[in-house]
């Protein structure tokens, strides 16, 4: 086996990324504290052409924490569209009004296991990922249309928010890959 070079990977430029077809998927970060987690979500969102990221509450933005976010985003903060809002609940309500299927990625009563969730390719989705300790705020959960849960089998029943983002974004991309 031989590792592929950067040119062999067929990477697109930032401007080509901005003009490319995106997954109909918005990622919402609700009070995510770690700048490295934020950067990692940007990088994963770039890898799978997520349409945008909405940073809410105490979640840092690339404008006020560029160095730390850039360390893990590696430039994806420049390719992936993002906005900031201090009101995550308001964002979820607005997206509901715009026809998005809003989903809290959280362990709640009645959650749907990720491995049994089927994406409807005709719909747009918004996934809310929460704080590293407290998860998605209950008020935000209350305003989402459903909740997805990643099945886990060990003694710990939580994952790092950037790992969670990677798993869930991958599943949506896997099911919608023909869109890209």
Question: How would you describe this structure to a colleague?
Answer:
The protein contains seven helices and seven strands. It is of the alpha/beta class and 180 residues long. Helix 2 crosses helix 3 (66-73) and helix 2 packs parallel to helix 7 (161-176). The longest helix has 16 residues, at 161-176. The mean pLDDT is 95.
- The largest beta-sheet arranges its strands as 3-2-1-6-4-7-5
Determine and state the CATH class.
Alpha Beta
Strand content: 15-25%
Shape designation: globular
Order of helices and strands: HEHEHHEHEEEHEH
- Estimated radius of gyration: 16 Å
List keywords for this structure.
alpha/beta, seven-stranded parallel beta sheet, 7 helices, 19% strand
Topology:
Elements: H1 14-19, E1 23-30, H2 35-47, E2 50-56, H3 66-73, H4 76-79, E3 82-85, H5 88-97, E4 101-105, E5 112-113, E6 125-129, H6 138-143, E7 146-149, H7 161-176
Parallel strand pairs: 1-2, 1-6, 2-3, 4-6, 4-7, 5-7
Helix pairs in contact: 2-3, 2-7
Report a brief summary of the structure.
The chain has 180 residues and is an alpha/beta fold. The chain has a single domain, classed as SPOUT methyltransferase, trefoil knot domain (Alpha/beta knot, 3-Layer(aba) Sandwich).
